[in-house]
C-alpha cells in the first residue's frame, strides 16, 4: 500500500529544510521543557507529601496553645495516656543565648522537648544518637547555624536564661525541616525537665505549647469532634496528618503553578519563534507550492504537505523538550531545597510528559498555521510570473486569519487557566501576556512606520541603509522586538519586584532610626536596662508598653453569643490574646481611615477610647462608635472604638492591632519594648551580651542582622523564579538567533551588492550595527517600561506595599540589552561582513 501523496511530498520537501528549521525545534523544546519540568515536579511533590505527611508532622495529632494547657484539657490528656495513647510535648519560645567562650549572643528559638517525639521519622544528629542521649543531662542540641552565629563548637557552654547547658551536638536533619526557617530563627533543643531552671517563661512571654499523640487514624477525628467545644473555648488549635498533607500540597502546589506560569511564557516565546521561522520558510516555498498546483495538487493538498512538516517537526521539538524537562525535573529539588520540608522523590510522570508533548506540538502547529495559510492560496500562475510575484505570498482570507487567531487566544487563556493556582490569576496572566504582546507589536509597527515616515535623508549612507532595513521586505523587526521585549519584561519585572520587597525591610540610615530592639522587659527591669544603656552612651529612642488582653464581648454581646457566621469565619480574631499598647500619638507606620484620634482628656463618664487596625475591625464587623469589653488579666475594661487605622506591618517598629488612649492601662500588668541605636557593630554585640547576662528574660534583636536575613530569604525565593525564567531567556535568545538566521540570506544578498558597488566591510558592519541598535534599544525600552508598570501593579495591588521605581538599574538593563543584541547580531553576521563578493556570490548560487 502506497503512502498518501501529501505524506510523501512532505517528507521530500523537508529534506532541504531540516537544518534551517532546527531553531524551530529548539524554540518549542525550551518551552515544553519548562512546563514538563515544573508540572512533573508538582506531581512529585504531591506524591512525596502523601507518603511523608505523617513523618513531617511527627505524630498523628498535634494540639497547640499560646498558654499552658488548662486543667480541663490536661484531664483529657491523662485519660488518653491511661488508654495507651503515647503523648509527647514541645514548648517553644524565642530567647537570647550566650556562648561563654566567644562572648557572642543570638536570638534563637528554644524548644523544650519531652516524651518520644517524633513518633514518626527520625532526627539525625552529629554525632549520631544524641537525640536520645542528651535528654538526661544539662545538654542541648543546636542547628548548625547556631554554631556559626555564636562562633561556638561542640562541648562549649551556652547560657539560656539563668541556666547553663553544654552543646552535645548538632541537629543535621529533622522532620519538616525548612532551611529558610532555620536561617531566620535557628533552634536550640533542651530537655523539658530543665526548662524551669531558665526562669524565662514569665508574664508577657510569648510561647507555643504543643502536645503530640500517636493514635489510630480512625480515632483522630472522633476525638477532635468530641472535644471540639472544649478546645475552642481554650483557644487550642489542632493539626492532623490529613490536614498537614492538604496544607502542604496546596502551598507547594501553588508555588509550582506560579513557576509554571513563568515556564508558560517560555512556551509562548517559542511559539513566536515558530511563527517567525515558518514565515520565512513559507516565502522560500511559494514557488514550490505554485509548481505543485500546476501539477494538479489542490489547495488542501498543498496545505497538508507543509502542515504535515510543521506537525512532525513540532512533535520532534516537543519530544526533545520532554526529555530536557525530565532532566530539569531532577534538578528542581536542589534549586527549591530551601523551601521544602520534605525529601522529594523524582519519578517519571508519564501523563505530564504526554500532556507536555501534546501542548508543545499543538502550540507549534497553531503558530505555524497562520503563515502556512499563504501556501493554500498560492496561484499556479506564480510559476510563470516569478519576478513579478517575488516576495510575500498571498494574504490569507480574513475568516481563516480570524479563526486561527481566535484559536490561539483561546488556547492561551485555557493554558493560563489550567496552569494558574486560581482562575483569576490565570485570566490576569493571559490578559497581561496579550497586553504585553500588543504593546510590543504596536511598538514594532510604530518603529517601522516612523522610520518610513520620518526617514533621516540627511544622515550618512550607513545610517540610512541600516534604518531602511527595519521596514524593507522580509524584515524581522516584529519577531525580534517581541522576543527581546518579552524577555526583558519578564526578567526585569522579577528584578523590580525583588528590589522593591527588599527595600521595604531596609533600615533607615538616619541617626534617629533604631537598629536595636530589647523586648520582654519587665516593669521592675525597665529602669535598670535604661541605666545600662545610658552607661554605654546609648539612649532609648522609644519605649513601648505591651499589655496582653482578650475580647470579652462586642457591643454588650459575649463572644459565645455572637452570630455563628462570625465565630466560624474568624474564630482567632475573637479568641486570640491581643498584645495592646497605649499612647497619645500616631506613629509613622499608621494612617487613620475613619474616626478621629484623641487629642485631649476624656470627658467624665465617657468610655475609654481605642483605635483598631482596619483588617481586625473588618473581621470583627465593627466600626467607629462600637463598644468592646476587654479582659485585661481578669479585669473587664469596656471601651469605645474612636478610630480605624491602616498599619504598614513591613516597617521595623512596634505595630499593634489595638491602641488604647493614655490613662487606662498604666496600672495593668505589662512588659516593655525598647528601641535604641548603636552605630558600632561591636558595641551592639557587647551591649546585647551584657544585657543577656544581667537580665536573662530580656531578649534583644539586631535589626541589621534581620535585614540581611530577609534580604537573603527574598533572594532565595526569587532564585526559583529566575531558574524558570532562564527558559524564557533561552527562548528569547533562540528567537533572536532565528530571526537573524531567517534574514541572513537577505542580508547576504544586500552585502554582496554593496561590496560589488565598492562598500567596505566597515560600512557593512556599520549598517548592521544601526539596524541591531534600533531593534535592541526600542525593544529593551518597551520591555523596561512594561516591567516598571508590572512591578508597580504587583507591589501595590498584590502585596499592597509602596513602590519605588529603580531608574538607574533599569537604565543599566536597557543599555546591557542593547549591547547584547548588537554583539549577537554581529557575531551571527560575521561571515556576511568578512566574505568577499565572489565567494558570497558562489555561496548564494549553490
Give structural notes.
It is a single chain. By secondary structure, the protein is α+β, with helices and mostly antiparallel strands. It is 56% helix and 16% strand. The chain has a six-stranded mixed β-barrel. The protein has a six-stranded mixed β-barrel with strand order 12-14-19-16-18-17. A hairpin with a 2-residue loop joins strand 17 and strand 18. Helix 15 packs across helix 17, helix 15 runs antiparallel to helix 25 and helix 25 runs antiparallel to helix 26. The longest helix is centred in the N-terminal third of the chain and has 54 residues. The radius of gyration is 34 Å and the shape is elongated. The relative contact order is 0.11.
Produce a short descriptive summary:
With 846 residues, the protein is α+β, with helices and mostly antiparallel strands. The protein has a 6-stranded mixed β-barrel. It has a 6-stranded mixed beta barrel with strand order 12-14-19-16-18-17. β2 (87-99) and β3 form a beta hairpin.
